[in-house]
Amino acid sequence: MVSLTTPVCEFDKPAVDFALPGVDGEIWTLEKARGENGLLVMFICNHCPYVKAILPRLIRDTRELRDQWGINSIAIMSNDPSLYEEDSFENMQRIAREMDFPFPYVYDKTQEVARAYGAVCTPDFFGYNRDLKLQYRGRLDASRKEPAPENARRELFEAMVQVAKTGRGPEEQIPSMGCSIKWKE
Question: Structural domains in the chain?
């Protein structure tokens, strides 16, 4: 397992459109996923210990961003599931149901969307303002393979609230860290 960190935020880079199948049977596009004040595009998977460590907090934060701040979220799974059975579409459906995801969970089978976004690891977060211009490319919080302490600063949440209020993300951002995306040969 290779651990990687995300690149620095390219402020105002436009979001890339997509049309991906969700575990809910819907086809999700950028326009369908966006919220009134922005969109958080998240590259996650089921097997990664970095994702597992943050999942309850991620669910809490994305629910609050949607309900209180008008920022929707979408989770994209781009890994090659032949490398990890846990990342299969059936397991994506199971995890989304069991964890009651407050966001669509979609499958990037061709990996074209991950490549278009420049995603490098799971989790990898792309926070967009209402104009779908990039404002955040940092971590959720201080968690690594283990959850951060309960009182850890909610970095992604705070950044996206700032984006909802001002249209701009914070200048200082700490990169996300996670497992490399499992690219197809």
Answer: 3-180 (3.40.30.10)
